[in-house]
From TrEMBL:
This is Thymidine kinase. InterPro entries: P-loop_NTPase, Thymidine_kinase. Gene3D superfamilies: P-loop containing nucleotide triphosphate hydrolases. Residues 1-21 are annotated as: Disordered. It comes from the Bacteria. Transmembrane segments: none annotated. It comes from Micromonospora pisi.
Length: 238
């Protein structure tokens, strides 16, 4: 064996499995050729509003559940303002509301202690989670063998990254821009989420303001292309 081959097989050797089911060794979980049948991963799917993120999240939950896997759906500040994931095309699924002090690891441990399978997490609206939640997601993948599929916006109304989205870009095994096309009023691809207050694009303010909860002003969001985000042009019907 040449040094090169030895070096590359060393790199390919699976790390020891040290998750909570440590009696279930890597060998037992592999196809017999040393490769694990499944290695958990942290995946971040991002896109602007209305691009179908929540729909994709629920579809992914359905696909995995159908394979007999057990999972949890979490969300934060869903547009329904209740503990569920709702989609603009009318799907809904009950979900666990993620609060600042919710520990995702404790959530998984608790469910497993009740004898429930937790093979994956679907984390909707992940841009609104804390950076600590994203660290917990990475730990769930690495130490608990839980797949974490996070869905959310990348940027806020100022076109800057949400802190949790930034951490997801930094830590995720895979980052995917959702390809469902949302168009700006001009027909170009929608990229950025503008905050519109009393009919005008605003550039300053709190990072998270939900239209339904603000009574003092008419706040809404509109997906724009970069050009019209920059100029603040909401189009003929804006
Ligand atoms: Zn445009």
């Amino acid at each position: 064996m040449t040094d090169d081959v030895a070096a590359s097989s060393a790199r390919l050797a699976p790390p020891p499995y040290v998750g909570p089911d440590a009696d279930q060794t890597y060998a037992a979980r592999s196809a017999g050729d040393g490769r694990p049948l499944h290695a958990a991963a942290l995946k971040f799917f991002w896109g602007p509003m209305d691009c179908g993120k929540s729909t994709m999240a629920l579809q992914m939950n359905y696909n995995h559940a159908r394979q007999g896997r057990g999972g949890l759906v979490t969300t934060r500040i869903d547009r329904s303002l209740g503990p569920q994931v709702t989609t603009r095309i009318g799907l809904a699924h009950e979900a666990i509301e993620v609060t600042d002090d919710l520990d995702l690891r404790a959530l998984v441990r608790g469910r497993r202690a009740e004898g429930l399978r937790v093979d994956y997490l679907i984390c909707d609206e992940a841009c609104f989670y804390t950076v600590q939640h994203v660290e917990q997601m990475a730990e769930l993948v690495d130490d608990y063998d839980v797949d974490v599929f996070a869905f959310g916006l990348a940027t806020d109304f100022r076109s800057g990254l949400f802190p949790a989205a930034q951490r997801l870009f930094e830590l995720a095994d895979e980052v995917t821009r959702i390809q469902v096309e949302v168009l700006c009023w001009c027909g170009r691809e929608g990229l950025l989420n503008a905050r519109v207050v009393d009919g005008v694009v605003v550039r300053e303010g709190r990072q998270v303001v939900i239209g339904d909860t603000v009574v003092s002003a008419d706040v809404r969001y509109q997906v724009l292309c970069r050009r019209h985000f920059r100029t603040g042009n909401l189009g003929p019907r804006g």
